[in-house]
Amino acid sequence: MRILIVEDDETLADGLSVGLRLSGLTPELVTTVADAREALAHGGYSAIVLDIMLPDGTGLELLSELRSQGDNTPALLLSALDQTQDRVAGLDLGADDYLGKPFDLAEVSARLRAIVRRAEGRAESFIRWNGLAVDPARMTGHKDNCTIEFSPREFTILRALLERPGAILSKTVLEDRLYGWQDGVESNAVEVHIHKLRVKLGAGFIQTVRGAGYRLAGAGQ
Amino acid sequence: MNSVRFRLFIILVAATSLVWLSAFVWVQQSTRGKVERVLDARLAEAGQMVSSLLSDQRIDLNTIAVAPTGAAKTDGILETDYSHKLSCQIWSLNGALVGSSGSAPQGKLTDRDTGFSTNVIDGEKWRVYSVVNEALGMRIMVGDSYKVRDRLVEDVTRGLALPALLVLPIMAVLILVSVQRGLAPLERLASALSQRPAEDLSPVSVAPLPREIKPMGDALNGLFSRVTVMRDREKSFTSFAAHELKTPLAAIKTQAQVAAMAPDKDTRLRALDQIQHGVGRADRMVRQLLALASLDSDDALDESKGQVAKIIQAVASDLARTAAEKQVAIGFTDHSEAVMRTHAVLLSVAVRNVVENAIHASPVGASVDISLTNESGRCHVSVHDMGPGIPAEEIPRISARFYRGKGAKEGGSGLGLSIVAAALERLGGDISFQRHPEGGETVTLMIPVD
């Protein structure tokens, strides 16, 4: 799940970015409204974490701009203004959720999962595919009455593939999702994690499409 | 008693009574004067008349002498309170009583030869007119008792006093009622104000107030609006302060949680480092907020004055460590050649924030140069840095509270320049920004000095 974080406070943005990554999300960081606009123009974000007070404008302006353009990317507002009327104003402008500072990292990731789930039209928090039920909150999977644990990196790749099951994701796209880890991405990182996932989920769960990338095998295969 | 109602009532009743009293005294005096004049004229006439009757031999002196006391006088005449009660005595010039009227006293009416006199005879006061009839060798004395005169005056004044005594209590009641009614709007205003909750600073409705009390209502409303402005400013300051402190707190909390969930040592150490950084920033912000709050209050000017050069030197050495962390050097050159003094705290706060901004704007390895010059009654403190400079379009806005420039990467509080602005306002100073084409910015503070 690629998450765009729009936050100008360096320390906070860094904490959010590292924390969300450890929760199995793929955060990307921008510090101004202008940069956020540019990033959103490329699309592909599952959700936006949006601060209200930004150096070159407010998150609320950006949000209403997005909604008026028909962009329905789920948005979680983060703000130090956490009076009821501020929350109401934010939600009325098209925010999907609102968190007052200071917040819990666990709550941020839980709320992000919830707004993404709602946006994807799922009622339950488990993502099911081909006999596997994935619990994004715990980064675990259930298959054949067994609980499977994933590392954050493995989960990031699995979650990316689960976003559009059946679609082919190139190695570069998957590398992008892993990008940002402090130790950097080794050239064979995607292969290493795909291998680990196959060990855990069965060799046929993830298919390699030669020359194109990876996809989840269809139901029944 | 400090009551307007009571005082008004007393003053009005006293004034009314005084008017009545002076009318009373004046009427009494003038009545007495008139009565005296009229009755004196009558006495003189009566004296002349008796004298001329004697001269014409129309009165037999022997008859007078034996006239029975009070007999003929009242015959056929209805005696009223004001009956004139004239008394007459006729004396020979050698001092023998020739005759007297019935109502006359036993003693001699007067010792005076002619004209008016006032005498006390047998304990009674008489007004006497005597006239000498040279031809007959007689002295005629006509007199009346003061009792009559006093009664006349007394009756006239009583006629005046009686209605006054009756009317005064009624008037007192009327005065009391109208004073009450006149002060009623004031009481309504007072009770409306006393029933107000503390947060209600809405204007008092002045329309129904009488013209005399309206200025007070207007003044109250003026005060209310000033208090509202001040309260709103404090509120916005507090809410902004709380708002601005929440972000560094959120950063520290988030980094602490990252440290707790970090899967490896590197991630944890990095998070701990970020926590330290965040605490440092929160600390600076709290310090700035406190500085700003104290500049907003009236206490700042009470502080003692100090030497400008020494204050700047102290600020520079204070900030040397912060600068060293960024590998920025601070230099201070004093070109003033004079001892200048100004408010130590205000100058130090202003210079400190400008220099801090310069340090944060500086690239690694650069220097921040402070120079002090003396310009006819003002000191110029110039702070030069090698940072990117402030874009011209941002200059009008940079002193606004919590405004952070677009290039503010360091995540400053946005308070620095508003603190400088508040301090300069107190000092009566000015600030100017000069961006150098080759890079860098010079901020100059111009401050009046002693």
Which features characterize this protein?
heterodimer; A: 221 residues; alpha/beta; Rossmann fold; Arc Repressor Mutant, subunit A; 2 domains; five-stranded parallel sheet; 8 helices; 13 strands; 23% strand; globular; B: 450 residues; alpha+beta; Beta-Lactamase; Heat Shock Protein 90; five-stranded antiparallel sheet; five-stranded mixed sheet; 52% helix
Describe the fold and architecture.
The complex is a heterodimer of chains A (221) and B (450). Chain A is of the alpha/beta class. Chain A has 2 domains: 119 residues, Rossmann fold, CATH 3.40.50.2300; 90 residues, Orthogonal Bundle (Arc Repressor Mutant, subunit A). Chain A is 41% helix and 23% strand. A 5-stranded parallel β-sheet of chain A has the order 2-1-3-6-7, sandwiched between helices. In chain A, helix 6 packs across helix 8. The longest helix of chain A is centred in the middle third of the chain and has 16 residues. By secondary structure, chain B is an alpha+beta fold. Among the domains of chain B are: 137 residues, Beta-Lactamase (2-Layer Sandwich); 148 residues, Histidine kinase-like ATPase, C-terminal domain (Heat Shock Protein 90, 2-Layer Sandwich). Helix content of chain B is 52%, strand content 18%. Chain B contains 8 helices and 12 strands. In chain B, strand 4 and strand 5 form a beta hairpin. In chain B, helix 1 packs antiparallel against helix 3 and helix 5 runs parallel beside helix 8. Classes of the chains: A alpha/beta (221), B alpha+beta (450). Chains A and B meet through helix 1 of A and helix 4 and helix 5 of B.
| Assembly category | heterodimer
Radius of gyration of chain B: 53 Å
Please provide the count of β strands of chain B.
12
Largest interface: which pair? A-B, 28 and 35 residues
Task: Characterize the main sheet of chain B.
Answer: 5 strands, antiparallel
Strand order of the largest sheet of chain B: 2-1-5-4-3
Q: Based on DSSP secondary structure assignment, what is the total number of beta strands of chain A?
A: 13
Give the C-alpha Rg of chain A. 18 Å
What best-fitting shape of chain B do the alpha-carbon axes yield?
rod-shaped
Number of helices of chain A: 8
**Secondary-structure element order of chain A, as H and E?**
EHEHEEEHEHEHEEEEHHHEE
N-to-C terminal Cα separation of chain B, in Å? 53 Å
CATH topology of the largest domain in chain A: Rossmann fold
Mean pLDDT of chain B: 80
Number of domains of chain A: 2
Largest sheet of chain A: 5 strands, parallel
What is the mean pLDDT of chain A? 85
Give helix % range of chain B: 40-55%
